[in-house]
Write a structure and sequence with these properties.
By secondary structure, the chain is an alpha+beta fold. The chain folds into two domains: 1-33; 34-145, Beta Barrel (OB fold (Dihydrolipoamide Acetyltransferase, E2P)), CATH 2.40.50.140. 35% of the residues lie in helices and 28% in strands. It has helices at residues 3-32, 39-43, 129-146, and strands at residues 36-37, 53-59, 65-66, 72-78, 83-89, 101-109, 112-120. The longest helix has 30 residues, at 3-32.
Length: 152
């Protein structure tokens, strides 16, 4: 084999190796990617049925209930336009309260969101940007639907 052919073969092997590594990294990234959805988006069917995702909003007041086992909790998350029922088995964060911001990660199980992890906002001024934006949009949409009609 000539030197030129050896170099060409080496470059081809290097390109194939880099391509394989890039494919593996992208596949791992795609399988670990978790998207955020609002209760309105879940109600519209925009959320995936076959994979985990995050849902966020406010814990609806009066919706929190606990089972006798002490670790299973049921509550509803709302963006003020739509609501989704959530079931979580585990210890809720200390900052978890009704009327406060929450992000739950899990999967849809029928019409109920089965959460594997629940995150509560950590202070009065913080809310995940996606959740804050979704709440603002839902409130604006609700105001336009409820706006009083002009006198005729």
């Amino acid at each position: 084999m000539k030197t030129r052919h050896k170099k060409l073969l080496l470059v081809a092997v290097a390109v194939l190796g880099l391509s394989a590594v890039a494919a593996l990294v992208l596949n791992a990234f795609r399988s670990n990617l978790v998207f955020f959805f609002t209760p309105t988006q879940v109600a519209k069917g925009e959320a995936p049925r076959e994979r985990a995702f995050r849902v966020g909003g406010l814990v609806e007041k009066g919706s929190l209930s606990r089972e006798a086992d002490g670790v299973t909790a049921h509550f509803r998350v709302t963006d003020t336009a739509n609501t989704i029922a959530v079931t979580y088995k585990g210890i809720l964060p200390d900052l978890f309260k009704e009327g406060k911001g929450v992000v739950a990660e899990g999967r849809l199980d029928g019409g109920v969101f089965a959460a594997e992890q629940v995150l509560a906002k950590h202070d009065e001024n913080y809310m995940p940007p996606e959740a804050a934006s979704a709440l603002d949009q839902a409130q604006k949409a609700q105001k336009t639907l409820v706006a009083p009609q002009g006198k005729r």
